[in-house]
Design a protein that fits this description.
alpha+beta; Prot_kinase_dom; EC 2.7.11.1; about 15% strand; two-stranded antiparallel ribbon; ATP-binding; about 300 residues; single chain; ATP binding
Length: about 300
C-alpha cells in the first residue's frame, strides 16, 4: 500500500479530510473527522449473511492479503499498532443511492437525546464487492513501543496481553490469524470460556495450551508474578481451568478439503513468543496467501 492510497492517520493530516466539525461534550470540544463511507465490518458481514458458515477460502485469502498490506504500511511508515477493525469499503458511492432512496421514503427510527443531538437507527444494506479498509484507530498506539495495558476483545487477546507483558506490533499479527479463522467458519478459535460457559483468563490460557502446546519457560519469566497465578515454578499448569481435549489446529480445522497450508499459516502467527511471529511484510509471502498450497 503506497502512502498516496493510504488513509491519512497522523494528527497533522486532519486538514486533508473532506469534512470535519467540532462538537461540545462534558469534557470540552472535540474534533470529528468524517471518513469515506463503507459498508460493514467483515465480522458483521459474516454474522448477518453467513451465520452458519464462513466465507470461501479464496475470499478469506484475499481479505487477509489486503489486511497485511495495510498493516505493513501502518507498522513501518506510520509507526502505529492498530488493534482495530476491518471494513468492506465501496468501489462507487452510487452503491449508496438505494439507501438514500429508502431513507427518503421511509426514514429510520431516531431519538433526541439532547438539545442538539439526535441518534439514528442504522439501516442495513446488502453488501457488494469492494476494497478492504482498515478502520477504528481509536485504540491505536503511536510510536515504537513497547506498550502496556489491556487491548482487544477478550477472546482475541494475544498471550502477552493476557499475561500483562509489554506488547507491540506482534499483537496485530496475532489478530490476523484469528481474523482468518473467523472469516473461514462459524466459530471463534478461542472463547476464553470453560466448559460451563464461564469466561476468565485461566479458561483462555487453557484453550491456548490445548491448541498451541504449553508456553516456553522464557515466556513465563517475562512476568513471574502473573505466571505464578497459573503455573508452578517448574512451569506446570495449576489447573485453575481444565485443558480441553482434541483441540489442536489440525483437529479443529474441518472446513477445508486440504487444510495443510492454512494450518501452517496459523502456526506461524499464533505463537506464545511475540518475536516468533513474522512481520506483515513477511507474511505477504506465505505459501497459503500466494497460492502455492491451494486447496481444491
Amino acid at each position: 500500500m503506497s502512502p498516496s492510497r493510504s488513509t491519512c492517520i497522523l494528527p497533522d493530516c486532519t486538514e486533508n479530510f473532506p469534512y470535519s466539525f467540532e462538537i461540545s461534550g462534558p469534557d470540552g470540544r472535540h474534533k470529528v473527522l468524517v471518513m469515506q463511507p463503507a459498508q460493514m465490518s467483515l465480522r458483521d458481514l459474516k454474522q448477518v449473511f453467513r451465520p452458519d458458515g464462513g466465507f470461501d477460502e479464496n475470499f478469506v485469502r484475499g481479505a487477509i492479503h489486503e489486511l497485511l498490506k495495510a498493516l505493513d504500511f501502518i507498522h513501518e511508515e506510520a509507526q502505529l499498532v492498530h488493534t482495530g477493525n476491518l471494513l468492506l469499503g465501496l468501489d462507487d458511492d452510487s452503491q449508496l443511492e438505494p439507501l438514500v432512496d429508502m431513507e427518503l421514503k421511509s426514514p429510520v427510527s431516531r431519538k433526541k437525546v439532547a438539545e442538539n443531538r439526535t441518534i439514528y437507527l442504522s439501516r442495513l444494506m446488502r453488501p457488494k464487492p469492494g476494497p478492504m479498509l482498515l478502520s477504528d484507530f481509536g485504540e491505536a498506539r503511536t510510536g515504537s513501543g513497547p506498550f502496556a495495558g489491556d487491548i482487544m476483545p477478550i477472546q482475541y487477546r494475544a498471550p502477552e496481553v493476557i499475561m500483562c507483558i509489554a506488547w507491540n506490533r506482534p499483537v496485530d499479527i496475532w489478530s490476523v490469524g484469528l481474523t482468518a479463522w473467523d472469516l473461514l467458519g462459524p466459530n471463534r478459535l478461542f472463547t476464553a470460556k470453560d466448559e460451563d460457559g464461564d469466561m476468565y483468563d485461566a479458561a483462555h490460557l487453557a484453550e491456548l495450551i490445548a491448541t498451541l502446546g504449553p508456553p516456553p519457560q522464557e515466556f513465563l519469566q517475562r512476568n513471574v508474578e502473573r505466571a505464578a497465578d497459573f503455573w508452578n515454578e517448574q512451569g506446570k499448569w495449576l489447573g485453575l481451568a481444565p485443558i480441553p481435549k482434541n483441540r489442536s489446529l489440525e483437529e479443529l480445522e474441518t472446513r477445508l478439503k486440504d487444510s495443510t497450508g492454512f494450518v501452517a499459516f496459523l502456526r506461524r502467527v499464533l505463537t506464545w513468543m511475540p518475536e516468533d511471529r513474522p512481520t506483515a511484510k513477511e507474511l505477504l509471502q506465505d505459501p497459503w496467501l500466494t497460492g502455492e498450497n491451494r486447496s481444491t
